[in-house]
């Protein structure tokens, strides 16, 4: 799509905001449609019951995780390829310190609503939203965060948003992991955007774990706002989906006054474990892309 060429990274020519398509045969399209019709009622029941009711009830962590895994199972996510940097396959049980623990920060790639569902099912973290204009973070619920995969990017917090310093949020919740998506807007997974500055306020002694998630097929990413129906169809019309999860070694914010240092380290770590490139694009460019995309669709 040459009309959106200005939103490609100049160094790599990667276009992280364009939706990805999967080529299918006529038979695959037909069977996919039937599979979607079969899965949709069960998905609406399980996902709706959790997001609208059970998420807000004190049902316990294990019950919440069971509901989330049920959602993933209905969608065809039956295989997760998990690797932890510095840990040999089969020895993860002896290397628990290599995984995010309560009191640590997860820095995740930001591509698909399955990011949030999978991480919630594994780590039960505190979800936060970051913005390019501030180091403060906004604590949000899982349902709210899932909805934001389908809303336009924002340079500033919305009116009335309750913003909190990251160290305060960690201190108030010592038994929880805090989850950041420093790119602050979803992409198609082809590259890592510039980070927002919130990570620079992380306490020096706090471990920061980079986590990369990639999907096969790759058309369940949501780089364009408003693609809820298309996402749901792509998700439930495929027989199976595989999530490739890579957890990097912990990094630290060695100098809270050097904003770019820890942001560069986090972005570099995500690019390395995800085997993708860092891009000189960010939320501001995504805002421009969304405006151009909407004009083109009229």
From TrEMBL:
Keywords: Acyltransferase, Lipid metabolism, Membrane, Transferase, Transmembrane, Transmembrane helix
Record has Cytoplasm as a keyword: no
Membrane spanning residue stretches: 30-54
Any one GO MF annotation of this record: acyltransferase activity
GO BP, sorted A to Z: lipid metabolic process
Designated name of the protein: Phospholipid/glycerol acyltransferase domain-containing protein
